[in-house]
Structure formats: structure tokens, C-alpha cells
Design goal:
The protein starts with a strand and ends in a 7-residue tail after the last strand. It has helices at residues 66-75, 93-105, 127-142, 149-159, 203-209, 220-228, 231-237, 243-249, 251-261, 284-297, and strands at residues 2-6, 9-27, 33-53, 58-64, 110-117, 172-176, 180-183, 191-196, 239-240, 267-270, 277-281, 301-306. Strands 1, 2, 3, 4, 5, 6, 7 and 9 form an eight-stranded mixed beta sheet that branches. A four-stranded antiparallel beta sheet has the order 10-11-8-12, with helices on both faces. It is globular. By secondary structure, the chain is α+β, with helices and mostly antiparallel strands.
Length: 313
Amino acid sequence: MYVRRRGTLVEVEAPAKVNLFLEILFRRADGFHELETLMAPVGLYDQVSLAANSTGVLSLACRWARGVEGYRTRHGAAGTGLWEAIPAEGDNLALRSLILLRRRAGVEAGADVRLVKRIPAAAGLGGASSDAAAVLVAANIAWRLGWSRRQLTEVAAELGSDVPFFLHGGPCLCRGRGERIEAVKGIKPLNLVIVRPPAGLATAAVYQACSPAEQPRHAEAIVAAARDGDVVQVGRLLFNRLQNAAERLSPWIGRLQEAFGRLNCLGHQMSGSGTSYVGLCRHAVQARAVAARLRAAGLGAVFVVTTRNGEPV
């Protein structure tokens, strides 16, 4: 997450994320799943701009980035194409985060937020959660609250399982519902290709279809390999417990698995609850070549990205 201030305007680049490892340990009494996941932000960004106002009004204007909007027009209508419709104000997590922060801080400040989206929705890339975290950061600055990251994280945890992760700026090992976060330092950037197919999946449906592991795996081995810079071993250790469940719900997971399997990637798997699929490449040159072949196959929107090691907010 990159933050800059221009006069009264605060601008935040809100990154997507990928799950390099995701295990479901058990179903909790509160209905959520206990998980262990290694997540990393990647170089695909929504842009959040926030300006405080003196009226006390909270407003949110959203649009897809120009190139994205053109792709949606060519490849399918909102709700059925590669990008779903942007949620209305009342359902938009970014606006809900602003309302919750103002309530928790006990202030009556207003803000005008502009959100330009590039991260596909219903994709397992965390776009809505990243936007919500970016709004918390921007409002904290614009309203001069002076809150610590820990205070913001408490609010973020109320909004969604992935929102706290985006306040930490780099790869993290997340447990619980995702709110127990351990920063993972020393991981070199990984070259990835992401494909978001022409249909999404609802997170709740994927989790409901997934059975917890009888003998759960743990992330220590992949964390160690990533710290050692052993990208081959990282590829072997990629894992997502949700993938089998998602494959039963969407034919696109199997299609992408087959497509990536023919391209000599070091490893490949679904990200989060899908439907985005991720391939790990040896270097940037291979990533660009893999992306070109996947674009030619017409499997969806294709992104070449690297994992980021940004500073925490």
C-alpha cells in the first residue's frame, strides 16, 4: 500500500493479494473457519482518493479504470463478465469502513472518496478488502486522528477477514479468521501470472463446500523456502485447501489448472476462494511468455505481477 498526500487530498494505491498457501484447520463455533494462510500483496492496484470535508457528509464515487471498462464491454456485461458490478454505496465495503471508523473515533468529520478499480471482483484477490483498508488509512490521515496501526487493525477486523492484512504492507502469515497476523520478512519478489476467468465465485459458497483438513498442513516449509529464495521449492509447496471445493462449483478452475499445467510453471493454484488462478514463474521473462500464451487462449483477464514488500502503514 502506497500513500501520498497532496494538500488536503490523500491518495492510496491499494494492492491485490494472492494466497501462496491456504489451509482450513476446522470450522469454529461462531460459523467461521479457522485458517492458516500465507498471503502476499502484488503489483495490481486500485486507487483510492479521499478528501476531508466540513459538511459531515460521507460520499463515495466508484468507477472502473478506463482500460478495464473497455474490456468489460467487449467480454461481457456487468455481473457476468470478467468484472462484476461495483457494489452500491450501501453495500460497498470501502464506505462501510469509513462509517465504522467515524463511529469508533467519535468524530463527525465528512469525506469525499473516489475509487478507481482495476482489481477484478469475486476473484480471490482481495480487492474490496484492500479498498476498505486504504480508506481507513486515508481517513486516519485526512481527519488527523493519529491512530496507530493496531487501532486501525481492530476496526479492520470488524469489516472482514482479509482487511487487517492490507495494513501490514508485505507478505504475512495469517491465522484465526485472518485477523492474527505475523509479518514475514526477507521474502524476495516472486514473478506471478494471474488469470481471472469470465465467471466469479462467492466466497461464502466456496467455504461452505470445503471440508476442513483431517490432517492439516502448515505453512512453515513454504515460508522457509520463500525466505531462502528457493523459488523452485516455493512452487512445489503452493497449496490451497479451497481449490477442490471451487473446482466442483466452477468449471473454470479445472480449465485453468490444465492450461497452466502445459506451460512449465514452477507451480500453480487458485488464489483465495477463486476464481483467479496463479502461476509461479522462474523470472519475469518467463512470466511474460506465459501470459502471452494465456491471453492467446482467451481464458480471461491476464496480469503479470510480482509480490511486494511495502512498508506497513
